């Protein structure tokens, strides 16, 4: 999926740092619902790091899919009940997390199809002098399935917009001298959303 080594490291750093922040926030403060949300995001970040590397991108595909479907259902319950999630943005942000966890389940589930579409029967070959730029080899299908591309691009738009909104609010919170964890949390959510968008773009 990702042929450029530098891009793999950028995504790895993105999700290691945001996952570490979620773990730190979970240990520092929050209701039971908020801490559960943080734990789910830590697991999501670990899965995203694994997805960036060829050796681990398809590990435990079905367990991951089921896990993230259940995570989406859990956030849906938080959104409906408003279960003590105010410190993390309330019901609207919980709805966003439903979309994020559902997107994770979808990404894990369609990964084999996305990869087979990219490589095809003949695989790929790198252009001489252009490390990380993969070109279809002779006989390769060279195209991702249309439904995967369509869904991925829609989700790219969703996560890029969400990421910019989160970052904008984080800047406003910092300027208003609101609690540091609140502004950092918004920033982490923004970076995480943009990272999701970038990963989805590589699948399109």
Q: What can you see in these coordinates?
A:
- With 204 residues, this protein is mainly α.
- It is 73% helix and 3% strand.
- The chain is built from six helices and two strands.
- It has helices spanning 5-28, 32-51, 61-81, 90-119, 146-175, 180-203; strands spanning 124-126, 134-136.
- A two-stranded antiparallel ribbon has the order 1-2.
- α1 (5-28) runs antiparallel to α6 (180-203) and α4 (90-119) packs parallel to α6 (180-203).
- The longest helix is centred in the middle third of the chain and has 30 residues, at 90-119.
- The protein is globular.
- The termini are close together.
- The model is unreliable at 120-141 (pLDDT under 50).
What would the keywords be for this entry?
3% strand; 204 residues
* Discrete helix count: 6
Instruction: Provide the spatial order of strands within the biggest beta sheet.
Output: 1-2
Rg, please?
18 Å
Which outline best applies?
globular
Give the helix level as a range of percent. over 70%
Strand content: under 5%
Give the CA-CA distance, first to last residue. Answer: 10 Å
As residue ranges, the low-confidence spans are: 120-141
Characterize the main sheet: 2 strands, antiparallel
**Helix/strand/pairing category:** mainly alpha
| Count of beta strands | 2
- What's the mean pLDDT score? 84
Task: Provide the succession of SSEs.
Answer: HHHHEEHH
């Amino acid at each position: 999926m990702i042929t450029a080594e530098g891009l793999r490291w950028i995504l790895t750093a993105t999700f290691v740092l945001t996952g570490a922040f979620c773990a730190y926030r979970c240990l520092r403060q929050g209701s039971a619902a908020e801490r559960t949300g943080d734990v789910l995001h830590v697991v999501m970040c670990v899965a995203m790091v694994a997805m960036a590397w060829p050796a681990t991108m398809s590990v435990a595909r079905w367990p991951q899919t089921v896990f993230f479907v259940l995570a989406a259902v859990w956030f849906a319950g938080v959104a409906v009940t408003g279960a003590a999630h105010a410190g993390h943005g309330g019901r609207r942000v919980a709805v966003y997390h439903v979309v994020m966890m559902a997107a994770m389940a979808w990404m894990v589930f369609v990964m084999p199809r996305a990869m087979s579409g990219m490589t095809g029967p003949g695989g790929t070959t790198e252009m001489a002098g252009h490390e990380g730029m993969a070109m279809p080899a002779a006989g390769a299908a060279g195209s991702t399935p249309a439904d995967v591309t369509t869904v991925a691009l829609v989700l790219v738009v969703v996560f890029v917009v969400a990421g910019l909104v989160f970052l904008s609010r984080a800047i406003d919170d910092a300027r208003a001298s609101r609690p540091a964890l609140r502004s950092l949390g918004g920033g982490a959510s923004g970076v995480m959303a943009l990272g999701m968008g970038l990963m989805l773009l590589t699948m399109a």
